[in-house]
Protein 1
Amino acid sequence: MKRLYKSDTNKVFTGVIGGVGEYFDMDPTLLRLAYLLIAILTAFVPALIGYLIAAIIVPGRHDDDIGALQ
């Protein structure tokens, strides 16, 4: 089963967009440009809030590994 994780290797801030790129097998640079365009068009606040929520909710790959060991 395919799951969404924050990327450990392809990240700028928290790895959310890198993880989305890995999940959908897309270039994260294109996704970052699309996110930047959305942020500009929505006056940054909604895009920033959405990114912060995703950074909190989306688990890192290492978080899932810890749960598998217990």
Note: The two ends are 20 Å apart (CA to CA).
Protein 2
Amino acid sequence: TSKARRSVAPKAPSDIELVEASFGRFASKGDTLVERFYARLFEANPGVRAMFPDDLGAQKKKLLGALVLAVQNLRKPEVLAPVLLELGRKHLAYGASTAHFAPVGAALIGALGDVDRRFDASTRDAWARTYGVVANIMSQGMVVS
């Protein structure tokens, strides 16, 4: 886990600043964000719909909570890394695989662009790099030992 702890934060401090600023702009639109995320995910990847409960209410709250936790702790890898490793373990138990990270990332980046009017290329790239780091650490938690 020491490797994961060191690698949680995106390489460029500006990435963290862009992600935090963007997240702050749509914090009040969290419900819209998760609605757009699941709409995009299921539209582009209908096969993953069966992995989720019919009623997505609780799932949407979990996703929003995880996003808030991640963004609030980007500067605290000692807090975030263990949470992401455990989240990876949980997702493995739910039937998720590392192959799901790319479509989930695409849906998330698309949904972020839907709710943040100032989601420019720099912000999109910062979110993509940040998501890549998060997905990498979660995937470490998905390794069956």
Note: The chain has a mean pLDDT of 90.
Protein 3
Amino acid sequence: MLFKNVAAAQTVLRDAWRWPHFAVGELSCRCRGRFCDGQYWHDPAFLDALEAVRVRVGRPLVINSGHRCAQWNGAVGGAALSQHKRFAVDISLRGHDRRALLAAAKETGFRGFGLARNFLHLDRRMRPATWFYK
């Protein structure tokens, strides 16, 4: 479900929000009004898996990038078919063991894994894929 902005998502989802370690604002588009008003794509199954990763690793997950509006995705050099245009996250690796974080993500149902020096991309695409960023 796509929300036009953070405020709308927070209003609609307030009573149904069951993911204590995450907030709509950190998962929404970060173009800061250049192209949208903080679009947010809500996917409970994705959030359940993300919450499960957080619980398994026992440490906060810092989200560098969540949902991106199409224009912001283009501005930051995202792929034309980027999962970020729906729901994906790039998680900072600072303070995390890369292998443990990747294992937790695999165990909780993620299927898209982008490995970078400073972050781990996660998504729930239909077919499993792993890639490395330069």
Note: The beta strands are 2-3, 40-41, 63-65, 89-92, 112-115, 119-123, 129-132.
